[in-house]
Structure formats: structure tokens, C-alpha cells
Amino acid sequence: VRAAAEKRAAVLLADDVAELEEHARLFPTATVEVLPRLKAAIAKARRRGLEPSAVAAWERKVRELERGREASMRERAPAVLPLDEVLDVDVPFVGGKAAKLGEIAEVVARAGGEVPAGVALTVDAYRRFLRESGIAERLEAVAADPRLTPEGRSAKARALILGAPLTPDSGVGREIAAGLKSAGLGGAMLAVRSSAVDEDGAEAAFAGAGDTRLYVAPEEVLPDVKEVWASLWNPRALQYRRAKGLSTTGLAQAVVVQKMVPSEVSGVAFTQDPVTGDSSRLIVDAAFGLGEGVVSGRVAPDQYVVGKTLGREVLPPMISDKKLAIVRAPGGRGTVEHKMPPDWRRRRAMTPSKLEALNRAALALERHFGYPLDIEFGFVGNSLYILQARPVTSAAREAHAPAPPLREAKLAGRETAAPDAEPRRLLFVCAGNTCRSPMAERLAKAKLARDGRADVEVLSRGLGVARPGAPMSDGARAEVERRGVSGDGHIALPFEPSDAIWADVILTMTRAQAEALARAHPEARGKIFTLGAYAGTGGDIADPYGGGPARYREAAAQIAAGVDSALDRAELDAGRVEARAGRD
Description:
alpha+beta, six-stranded antiparallel β-sheet, five-stranded antiparallel β-sheet, 17% strand, disordered C terminus
């Protein structure tokens, strides 16, 4: 049976390869068509049982074509590429986001979905802009200046880029405008997103580092492109690079410009369960409106579990209280938070037919790349749009992993540690930093004071702070004061990159917030957990904002139980770690 399967696979592969060889002979530089088809033929043959040694020659052909593609791209140095001409191997020129989008368009189309039309502005477009505007040498001097802090370096670099001219009348600005028109984007509202690469071609971006501009009119796209280029020099991106030991010289930024998708429902799908690693299930987080709400953690999404083979749900969905949706701003440009009507807040965002369509596309993409994917999607009516596909990283899995104690989280990775090390640093995070996380902060500080402990420092922050400096909400204040703890003096503060570095453990109120932080701050891997998972007291803690006293009382009770359990556990675990350190 095996021999027959191998023979059939060899015949089928030979048919595919014969076609590809003919294509390559006629169009030796058209690797946009050749490479994906050859990779697909090899993957198909392997699934049919062909031994790896039998396809080794064709894998060498793939590598040969990839080297030829890279040489051609370096020689041509295009400023603008239509996404349908971009391949996964073009990461050094267009960044990971654009490279994936370019390669998946045909795969998604065959599965019944669509990748929005668009173009990639390559790193050569960015470098030409620096040269043509006369700021290239000045920017390199800023990058190399050892006296500058990340904030100072960012301010100087951003001022240079944003102050330099980029017009549709000349130079690279004219090429960008022509490329948009050629791609059919001249009359559409656009989305402008970053797609960063390192100077040696390795992908250096991390989710959330670069700017995203939504609902951009074609005539306004060049200023927004400059904003995205300048985001390469944000303090957050520079701090990330410093933490990873990466140089700040030679930085380059690619950009993706696509037709804006006015998603009515959107979210993120994992082709591997980020909690259990189960690859037989598709895990879908979804909410109403644009996907930025789910990705940023500002909106609590529903969660659906789909059996990938069955194509339907295999567990009851977790329907969240979706108080907000991110939608187009009334003026037409940008986005705003829209309060959902009460009768919509607990409706399913995803229907069974939408889940079936998404599962079909996700399976096709996973099959194409051969590894688990994290897929951002949107629906307009019943039309599916795939907005991004990237490998599932350990960041998403670690957001749900069993949590280490505070002490062990602090000591992890050190060869030695004194029992009298500095206090552990604990950060509570919610959405607006006016309800749940400040309640957790005040209750934790009160318990530490009662127990006479100075071994833990506590702060709180918000992922989507609408009013920085706002006090604790009236309902939250009433609940902490009912427990004998003052609610005075709190000011709402947004989560900053420095918080990811400061904290030893970050405890969010919901799983979606943990996922958003893990995605945006891979440097905080191993630190981010939900309060319920860390304390062993339960799941998500719903946002009581806008609800009555009973809602606040329920949230406060969950938070108090979680805080007590987490801090008691930390004290016991600290003793155990110290005893172990003494024995060592």
C-alpha cells in the first residue's frame, strides 16, 4: 500500500513539476507564479506519502528560485509593488506583514475569501525618501549618538522624517501615487500599516510597534505614510530593539497600503489552541466592528471553538458583554469607540456560517504554510476578508500558560539570586484604569500593609485609557471603601513600554487583554497572565463600568479573591524559593 501511494504521489508530483518547469522555461523571472505553485506541489506530494528524499531536488530548485528572486529585487530596487506580486520570501524588502499578504491572496481566494487589494511600499521607498529629502545622514547621526535617551532619539528622528517633503509631484512620492492609482486604489478609503524589517533583512517589528492609519483618503495618504515611517522611531520600538540587543543604525520601514475593509464583525483566529496546543481546533476571538478593538484589548471578544475537520463548533461559545465597537469616525477619517446598544452587547458576533467560512480559509492557509497561524479577519455581510496571517508565536501561548509565582517570575533566568533580593513588582491591567485594575491595586496594597510585607510593589495601568488622569469610577471607589480601603488619589494612566520592563508579573482582568499585551510586548514573555488564572480563582473578570452597584460588587468580590490568593501564594512561594536558594 505504501509503495503504491508513493508511486501515485511521484506521478502526481511529476505532473505538477512538468507544468512548473514549462512555466519556468517560458518565464524564467516570473517567480511570483512559480514559487508558490512549486511549494504547493511539494507539500501536496508529502501529504500523499512521498519520502522527503524524493523531493530534495525540487526543494533545491525552490532555494535556487528564491536566490534568483532576491537578486532580482536587489537589482530592481522597486519602491512600490502590488501585493499580488509579493512573495513570502520578500520579507527583507517588504516586511513580514506585506510578504504574507502577497502570498496568501490566491490561497484565500480559492477558499472563498479575499485579501484586500493593495500595494507594498518597500524599504527602498523609505531609503529613497531619506536621500531625496536630504535627511539620511542626519538621521544616521541621531541613530548613532550615544548621548541620546530612547525618548530623545525618538523625538529627533521623528521630527526629521515628519518635517521632510514628500509630494505626489516628484521622486518617490510620485511613484507611490502612481502605484496606488495603478492598483485601483485611487478612489478608495485606505488602511496604512507598518511592515518593518531590520537592516540585514530579518524581521524586526513586533505587533503594535508601528503605526496603523485607518480610513485614509487617497489624497492624504502621503502624510500618513510619513507617520508610519516615523513610527519606526517610536520610543516603544527603540526600547524593544535595545532590549533585544539590536542596532538602531540602518533601520528601514516598509508600509502596506490596502483598500479599507469596513468590517461589521472582526477578530483573530488561531489554528492551534493557544492554551492546550491542540491543533485539531480553531480558536476564534471575535467582536462587532473593526479588529483594532480585539487586537488592542479594548473590546472583550466572544470566543468560539471550531473542530477544524468538522467545520463547526465543538464547544458552547463564550459570549462576552461587548460594550464597545471600533467604527469609522463620523467625519469619515479615522475611528471612534461606539457604545453598543444593550440588546446587541450579548449577541453572537459570529454565526455558524461565518465560522464555517473562516475555518475553510484558515485550513487552506495553514496547509499552504505548513505551520500554525494567527489570522486577523473581518466580515462585511457574509464576505470574508483576511487582513493578516502570521506564525503563532510563544507569546500567545504564554499568555495562558500556568503562572510561576511572583518570586520565581523575578528569579527566572538568573544563575544566582540572594534571598533578600529587591521587592517583586506586580502590575494590574484592565481597559480604562478606572475600575478593575485600580480596585486590584488598592486591595493588594491594603493586604500587604495589613500583613506587614514590603516584598511586593504594586501599580495599575490601562490598555485603552480614554481620559488620562481620570479618578477611580464612583462604583469602584464605593466598593474599595466598603472594604475599608481609600479610593482617593488614583489617576488613570495608560500602559507604556517601560511598564513591560518594570513589572515582574502583569495580571490582566481578561484573556483578551492578556493576548493583546503578549502580542504587543513579546519582551514581556513569561510575565503576562490573567488574574483568575494566576490566582486559581476563575476566568475573566467582566468590566462593571456603566453597570449598577451589583455589577461592581460582583467584580470587586472576584478581584479581592484573586488578589488575596495571588499574594498569599507569592508569600509561600517566596519562602520556598529562599529555602531552595539557601540549600544551593
